[in-house]
Hints:
The protein is α+β, with helices and mostly antiparallel strands. It has 2 domains: 2-84, Beta Barrel (Thrombin, subunit H), CATH 2.40.10; 90-121, no CATH class. 15% of the residues lie in helices and 35% in strands. The chain has 2 helices and 9 strands. It has helices at 90-101, 107-113; strands at residues 2-5, 10-14, 23-26, 32-36, 40-45, 50-56, 62-65, 71-75, 80-84. Strands 3-4-5-6 form a 4-stranded antiparallel beta sheet, with no helix packed on it. It has a 3-stranded antiparallel beta sheet with strand order 7-8-9, with no helix packed on it. Strands 1-2 form a two-stranded antiparallel ribbon. A hairpin with a 4-residue loop joins strand 1 and strand 2. It is globular, with a radius of gyration of 17 Å. 12% of the residues are buried. InterPro entries: WD40/YVTN_repeat-like_dom_sf, WD40_rpt.
Amino acid sequence: MRTWDVRTGRLQDSFRAGDEVASLAFGSDGRTLAAGTARAVQLWDLASGQLRLTLPSRSPTTVAFSPDGRLVAIGTGGSVELWNVDLPDPAHAIRTVCEAVNRTLTPPEQSRYLHDQPAETGCPQAVR
């Protein structure tokens, strides 16, 4: 998939879905793109260009988000699959992890679990 700036005609970004894309839908947050391929629906973070989640599905032909963005409906010919995709933003998820372990992450943990996030988005120094 490629995104273009229609004013300039320049390529802004591209995503590799791995299969032919049959359907697309934008999430209500404006940050998430759902791409239906032959075997799955992939949710992409448009700001980072990172794949956020893959929903396995049998030959999805249609993809749509609920108005609040918490559900994805996938049409597969004779049926509809509903998926809860209420994904927290990365900063919220990081805070939740830090609170759960009640400490900051070590550099190896930061590298392993937050590899796509800048170091400053890690845990705050004082976790309560």
